[in-house]
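REQUEST
  id: r-88c1
  op: predict_structure
  target: Metallophosphoesterase
  payload:
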Amino acid sequence: MHLRVLWFLVALLGLAFAQRIGVIGDWGADSPHRPQIAQALHQKEPLEALLTLGDNFYPRGEPLQRFVDELPRVKIYPAFGNHDMPALEQQLRLFGVEQPYYTVQLGEVQIFIVYSEVFTTQQRAWLESALKTSQACWKVVALHRPLYSSGFHGGNRSLRQSLEPLLLRYGVRLVLAGHDHDYERLEARGIVHLVAGGGGAYLRDFRSAVPQSKVRRVSPNFLVLEATPEKLTVTAYDQKGGVLDRVEIRK
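RESPONSE
  id: r-88c1
  status: 200
  body:
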């Protein structure tokens, strides 16, 4: 077989076995770009699942089914943010999860959803146990409040002090967050942090860039994760499906 043809077939096989996971943050607002983000997500199908980064419904968390119906027809795994707290029980029932922190394995990726609004010692113990026993190729932590951010709210120092030792000890390579209504890629101590809070909420500009910041965009956004055993690729898109940023994490 011609070498070029062989390489093409290998590439196709790699794509076939890659898990593709959509990610949106701060999406549940009735803004002009929320339905545009939903439509752009459809253009990236097939997706295995959709992960949210909290603030699923503004202003006080009451679920709106029409927002959910616009999204791709895949299983939704939500994180929960400050705007979700008043109607947390309703959202737990809507999305079919028992509590606001949990873990799910999607092929090569295990996602650890952290409830950043009330981060108790009990939750920290759960997270350490789950990370320690995980055999996944890729460990990804998702939460609402970012550990690092140059945005309006900035990084959460208390969460960073509690979580970062666990991330380093148990090989977490990627942290996904929302809360700041922008897109930012940061790198800290060998871990990639992505803030993707532009799924529907009105945008905010950045404050002064923190030293860990690598890429900043004031734009509506969503992410697509693509995972194989060898690499984890995350692409950030705008509301028209244009590429804002791409990062590749290798073993």
